[in-house]
Amino acid sequence: MFARQRFGMHPGLGRVEALLSRLGNPQRAFRTVLVGGTNGKGSTAASVAAMLRAGGVRAGLFTSPHLTRFTERFVVDGAELPEAEVAAALAELRPHAEEVGASFFEVITALGALLFSRAGVEVAVMEVGLGGRLDATNTLDPVLSVLTNVGLDHTEVLGNTREAIAREKAGILRAGRPAVTGVAADLRPILRAEGADLWALGEEAHLSVQGRGWEGSDVTVGNPAGTVRLRTPLLGAHGAANAGLAALAALRLGLRPEAVQAGAQAVQWPGRLEVIPWRGTRVLLDGAHNPDGAQAVAAALRELGVERLPLVFGAAGDKDLAGVAAALRSLASEVILTRAALSPRAADPASLAHLFPEVPLTVTDHPQAALDALAARRAPQALVCGSLYLLGEVRPLLLGETSEGRERWQ
């Protein structure tokens, strides 16, 4: 299945619909929440799932990509499904996937539906992969849709304007059904044209955020159903906004404020401004790989009082790397360039040097070499950023864990 990553993404719903049909349409066994957007999908989806669990709902969480283990993509009631269970379901699914010519992401979407149906999931929170309208997850029929935001990413597939991307992402909305969004005001008419019962932050709902430094934020969510106050460990203004949007979604699903509060406080989402103490250094991991994400990270660090720190940076070659680097440059006291060893999409570290003019540079060819260089600096804190695939290799090195060692494309 991992070999199928090489064949890329093929937008369209026909193959995954045929695959699900062959499996007996397992997606009909549970209700679905779709979570789309350019950035923040994962943390928002994880927050919604945590709130459902706190409300006594058996919740499934489907996310992508994974950091270290493939089974991270399939979580039920807060726990990854066992690898043996996932492998057995995949073996059962395989001949059907081959028959219909399903892509990697289509296979794992159907696999998630099959696993969740067998696990007795009541509500599955599904993170959309790419776009929305033609994404494999859009074959599921959501009772609620969430759109976090819209920015310029995957422009080669979704279009090169925010408006074009918004139209693609709005495809997960359903006429007459509830939806929530944090999308900017100028793009909301595109979303409203889908006819969903949409609550937007800044219109039907409002957020008030009080930062608590490295402990997260207190968030007040005002909405047509009342007001709820919660505390989230997610760092930065963008983390608080994602938690607030998740709370709005949870309230629309009928959860009580107490469940929303408990779930918000319990959420964990690795690799997004995650703090890992390592050899006397507070290492921050963030998968920001587009300009909007990098700007959010930079703003969050300034809010936390971080002026300058070493940056370990590596990224896929098909991203807007100039935009990402521009957002991070002012934070970097120096830059250690590297690449995800298991990702053929990763850019040659030496080719990134021009993105950081007048900043001290070290070029390494492997994440371990980058960490060795970082350890020699004995810095009080550092940021590892630019690619989730890079984080997927750095994180186990920091924690003393093993990685699965498979080539990563998606």
Automatic annotation (TrEMBL):
Specify the Mur ligase C-terminal domain's residue ranges: 271-384
Which InterPro entries would you find in this protein's record?
Answer: Folylpolyglutamate_synth, Mur-like_cat_sf, Mur_ligase_C, Mur_ligase_C_dom_sf, Mur_ligase_cen
Question: Which cofactors does it use?
Answer: Mg(2+)
Q: Give the enzyme's EC designation.
A: 6.3.2.17
What does the record give as the reaction this protein catalyses? (6S)-5,6,7,8-tetrahydrofolyl-(gamma-L-Glu)(n) + L-glutamate + ATP = (6S)-5,6,7,8-tetrahydrofolyl-(gamma-L-Glu)(n+1) + ADP + phosphate + H(+)
Molecular function terms, GO-annotated: ATP binding; dihydrofolate synthase activity; metal ion binding; tetrahydrofolylpolyglutamate synthase activity
Family the entry assigns: Belongs to the folylpolyglutamate synthase family.
Write the protein's name.
tetrahydrofolate synthase
